[in-house]
Write a structure and sequence with these properties.
The complex is a heterodimer of chains A (343) and B (510). Chain A is built from no helices and 28 strands. Chain A is 0% helix and 52% strand. Chain A has a 4-stranded antiparallel beta sheet, with no helix packed on it. Chain B has helices at residues 62-67, 76-82, 85-100, 116-126, 130-143, 152-180, 204-207, 218-227, 241-257, 274-279, 300-309, 345-358, 401-413, 446-458, 469-477, 485-491, and strands at 34-37, 43-46, 52-54, 109-114, 148-151, 212-213, 264-270, 285-286, 291-292, 296-299, 372-375, 381-388, 391-400, 421-425. Chain B is 36% helix and 13% strand. Chain B contains 16 helices and 14 strands. Chain B: InterPro entries: Cytosolic_Fe-S_CAF, Fe_hydrogenase, Fe_hydrogenase_lsu_C, Fe_hydrogenase_ssu.
Chain lengths: 343, 510
């Protein structure tokens, strides 16, 4: 039997579309957020029976508009939310067990779209409709210092993510590009611009090594990018002696509409994508290949109408070995779904 | 136009395309005419007879820029077209024609006021001293028909003295208020403030908000007015050096020469594009004479272009004597004020306040004497503390660049600012690195270039504004003395929150 995806749970509770889902670093809790201005935290009711889930917390009151994305700090103690009300919220679990908003970061002029914690937890990045990417340093007492405001994208910035180990930031934008940002003596600058997508880049993810990136775009493709070291044999130009990113593979013909989200499992290396044609697809790198400079990827499983007639807004692999074949998706139907990838 | 300001990071950049509608004025009321748009986006009205008339698109003025909440600072293309060297050339040309036709009452007196940062930038590029640049620029401008060439180091001394007095007033009022009243919530929401100046904002001084924030940077002022109305009462009401020069030229010089302000054409040579916007503020417009205090601002880069256009080689140019309103020593050497190349506000105000408020003399911030200087998380944030018996009594800071402004604004908003005064500048590295300055050859890293221009600026000897006799004399001769009504009227200004208007949704790019 060929591999497939089977739905194991439907998480209902949001009263508007769900924009984003995020597993806590250990995978014990799933956070979701959306148009109803809340974040909901979900856990399976029992260890074995994974079909029943409970919403343990509803985080609300801090944002006046849609919460576009949610993310956990690397230590799992805090959550960050990016909202259309221009604020970024920082949430922490208090002694009474409830989560409260302990800080709001102001600065973006209007809608913030995405927020991400660096691997060490010491930096936070945000981006938004004002075309800017902000880097914040986590100071004491839930205070955040703005380290940099990067304004080189020419349009709305859709998503920011950090490298799995290094202080290297990546942003994806409506200007069809991906930008790589580095720090040099406290000055953040763009070290590379990845051009190739023909429309908005909605989502990006690293592989577990951080040497490869995958991007999802409104041009209906997924692109794979590899970082080539400075002394590479291709003799490509480099900027400030940093690696240069180059597109090594394009997956097209797999989605008939905009690809909104992509997740690259850090455990087993499968790539899952979700799109505006309501489809989830899972891709695998061809193992027979030895040439890592031109990897090939092929479709191994898919689900159509994953959220009925609704868009799949976000997709994320379970982060650890324990349930590494689980996927969470968020849809315009207001439902969060958990899937199991069966080989 | 964006070529000019490309590759800048951490500056306050316009965040969206200009949203001012382009209105199409039809040539007549004939309803049967149609509008045609050609490939290049030009609009034509086509009458029934098939005659095409090109339609004018609406002009966007700097006034529109100031009143609009669309982008945080100025759309540079508008700045460049509204105030340009072409305007200056045009005035000079009309002057020549007036002389040729013996229409001397049509002739305008043309005055240039140069920023010392612009002089330093030109000095760096052409390997000259600032004094050589000042004398050669004087020669250059006068050869084009300009009558007077001044510098804004001169008017900045007024700005420093007024800022320091304003700080001491605020500090004393603040202390009184603290003693009288229980502590209050500082998060007073900004209220709509009318442009005619009759609103409650006139009483802003009575609020005596601390920290006092520097007012010389128009990029910062514009940003504060458009996005942080609550912070306006914190901003010093003292005019910038450029605008004080405007008062000197259009009030004092006009009276002295016996000519009307509208017969003087006053041009600023500045390190910064936003100085054009500052010159256009309605607050600096003389309603009676229908004229601005500063008629036109051109940047350092535009002056460099003027050299080319006039085949002027500054390396081998003759030198002219300097005019009177330039800050010079008795021997004729250029002078500056001590401290940062953004004007030395922090340094002078701290030294003045230490003496006036705590009787501590001999503080020299530039030499780090009598104060504790701490560089912040990045080089564009600096803290300077004056201590008495190990206890801080005055805490000043300089915050340059967008990121540091952000942190400062958030601290003040949450009442967590420990500062009494902050020298705020929108550009990283401050005014010496203004957007209008000359760029280095590609071989020279930007950091090295900025530090070179900075060194040239700071190698000029300094003299305290309190020892500038020309300025002190003008206080009595022109302003009816220190703290007079006239000095308040001519040396201070006010700020206005821009109302957020609903953005045209069609112009927004998501």
């Amino acid at each position: 039997m060929s591999p497939n995806l089977e739905q194991i749970a439907e998480l209902k509770g949001h009263i508007d579309r769900v924009w984003s889902v995020a597993w806590s670093p250990t995978g014990n809790v799933l956070a979701s957020c959306g148009g109803d201005k809340t974040v909901r935290l979900w856990v399976p009711t029992s260890e074995n029976g994974s079909s029943e889930w409970t919403c343990t917390h509803v985080l609300e009151g801090a944002h006046k508009r849609t919460i576009r994305s949610v993310t956990w700090s690397p230590d799992g103690r805090q959550l960050a939310t990016a909202s259309f009300d221009a604020l970024t919220g920082i949430w922490e679990r208090g002694e009474d067990g409830d989560y409260e908003c302990v800080a709001t970061l102001e600065g973006h002029e209007n809608e913030t779209k995405s927020v991400a914690w660096s691997s060490s937890g010491s930096l936070l990045a945000t981006c938004g409709r004002d075309k800017s990417v902000w880097i914040w340093e986590v100071a004491q007492d839930n205070d955040f210092e703005c380290l940099s405001v990067l304004q080189e994208h020419t349009q709305d910035v859709k998503m920011v993510i950090w490298h799995p180990t290094d202080e290297l930031l990546v942003s994806a934008s409506y200007d069809d590009t991906i930008k790589i940002w580095r720090d040099d003596d406290d000055d953040w600058y763009c070290s590379d611009t990845l051009e190739g997508h023909e429309s908005t880049v909605w989502a990006i993810d690293f592989d577990k090594t951080g040497d490869y990136l995958v991007s999802a775009s409104d041009d209906k493709t997924l692109k794979f990018w590899k970082s080539f070291p400075n002394n590479n044999q291709e003799g490509m130009d480099t900027y400030r002696v940093h690696p240069k990113w180059k597109c090594v593979h394009t997956l097209s013909g797999q989605h008939s509409r905009c690809v909104y989200s992509v997740s690259w499992s850090k455990v087993h290396g499968l790539i899952a994508s979700g799109s505006g044609d309501n489809v989830i697809r899972v891709f695998e790198q061809d193992k027979s290949q030895n040439d890592t400079d031109s990897p090939n990827f092929s479709l191994v499983a898919s689900v159509s109408s994953a959220h009925g007639v609704a868009d799949v807004n976000c997709i994320q692999w379970y982060p650890t070995e324990k349930h590494s074949n689980w996927l969470a998706t968020a849809g315009d139907d207001g439902i969060v779904r958990i899937w199991r990838f069966v080989e | 136009m964006s070529v000019i300001l490309k590759d800048l990071n951490d500056y306050i950049a316009p965040s969206q395309a200009c949203i001012k509608p382009v209105e199409v004025k039809k040539t007549n009321d004939d309803k049967n005419n149609v509008i045609k748009i050609d490939d290049s986006g030009g609009y034509y009205e086509v009458s029934q007879e098939g005659i095409e008339t090109k339609l004018q698109t609406a002009q966007i003025t700097l006034d529109d820029c100031l009143a609009c909440s669309g982008c945080i600072t100025s759309a540079e293309s508008v700045l460049i077209t509204m105030q340009s060297r072409e305007e200056l050339y045009n005035v000079l040309k009309l002057n020549k024609e007036a002389i040729d036709q013996n229409n001397l009452d049509q002739k305008k007196t043309v005055v240039i006021s140069m920023a010392p940062q612009s002089i330093a930038s030109i000095a760096a590029k052409y390997d000259l001293t600032p004094l050589q640049v000042a004398k050669r620029l004087t020669h250059f401008f006068k050869s084009l028909g300009v009558h007077y060439v001044f510098d804004t180091s001169f008017s900045r001394d007024f700005s420093l003295l007024e800022s320091a007095r304003e700080f001491v007033e605020r500090y004393q009022l603040y202390q009184e208020k603290q003693q009288k009243k229980p502590p209050q919530d500082n998060n007073i929401k900004s209220t709509k403030i009318k442009r005619n100046g009759t609103s409650e904002n006139d009483g802003a001084m009575n609020e005596a908000k601390l920290p006092m924030l520097a007012s010389a940077c128009p990029g910062w002022i514009c940003y504060a007015e458009k996005t942080h109305g609550f912070i306006l009462p914190y901003i010093s009401q003292t005019k910038s050096p450029q605008q004080i020069m405007g008062s000197v030229v259009k009030d004092h010089l006009a009276n002295k020469l016996g000519i009307k302000p509208n017969n003087i054409y006053h041009v600023g040579v500045m390190m910064c594009f936003d100085k054009k916007l500052e010159a256009s503020r309605p607050d600096f417009f003389n309603d009676y004479y229908q004229v601005r205090d500063v008629d036109c601002v051109i940047t350092t880069g535009e002056v460099d272009k003027m050299f080319e256009e006039n085949n002027f080689d500054i390396k081998i140019s003759e030198e002219s004597l300097l005019d009177s309103f330039i800050k010079t020593s008795q021997e004729g050497a250029l002078l500056r004020s001590s401290g940062s190349s953004s004007g030395g506000y922090l340094e002078f105000i701290l030294e003045y306040a230490a003496r006036e408020l705590f009787n501590i003399t001999g503080v020299d911030v530039e030499k780090e004497q009598g104060v504790i200087v701490k560089i912040g998380r990045n080089k564009d944030f600096k803290e300077v503390t004056l201590e008495i018996d190990g206890k801080p009594v005055l805490k000043f800071a300089s915050a340059y660049g967008f990121r540091n402004i952000q942190n400062l604004v958030r601290k003040i908003k949450s009442s967590n600012s420990p500062y009494h005064y902050v020298e705020v500048m929108a550009c990283p590295s401050g005014c010496i690195n203004g957007g209008g300055q000359l760029k280095p050859d590609e071989t020279i890293p930007m950091k090295d270039w900025i530090s070179q221009v900075n060194n040239i600026y700071r190698n000029v000897n300094s003299l305290s504004p309190e020892k500038n006799d020309v300025v002190l004399n003008l206080y009595s001769e022109w302003l009816d003395g220190i703290n007079s009504e006239k000095s308040k009227k001519l040396l201070r200004t006010q700020y206005h929150a821009v109302e957020i208007t609903l953005v045209n949704p069609l112009a927004v790019k998501w």
